[in-house]
């Protein structure tokens, strides 16, 4: 049984899934994931008029989705600060 557990943990770690820790954020993204759920906010480049596309991905237990929308860096309201590249 100890060998099976060690092999399982080794396989998960080798596959890039660290038990109980979030994945490192990619450039232009903020957030993290675990095997049980999480979320990420990713911002695109800022256009000349100050607008940019923000995509928010969330999930838990295999269910979730992504929502993308336009914001303006000069008027973020109650949104989190720009996290783009």
From TrEMBL:
Alphabetized Pfam families for the sequence: CDGP
Query: InterPro entries, per this entry?
Result: CDGP_dom
* Ranges of residues in domain CDGP: 28-71
Signal sequence bounds: 1-27
Keyword terms of this UniProt record: Signal
The source's domain of life comes to Bacteria
Tell me which stretches of the chain form a coiled coil: none
Query: What protein name applies here?
Result: CDGP domain-containing protein
Q: What species was this sequence derived from?
A: Mycolicibacterium litorale
């Amino acid at each position: 049984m100890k060998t099976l557990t060690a092999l399982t943990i080794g396989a998960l770690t080798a596959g890039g899934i660290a038990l109980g820790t979030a994945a490192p954020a990619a450039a232009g993204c903020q957030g993290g994931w675990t095997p049980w759920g999480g979320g990420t906010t990713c911002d695109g480049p800022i256009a000349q008029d100050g607008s940019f596309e923000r995509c928010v991905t969330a999930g838990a237990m295999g269910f979730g989705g992504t929502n993308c929308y336009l914001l303006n860096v000069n008027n973020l309201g109650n949104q989190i600060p720009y996290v783009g590249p």
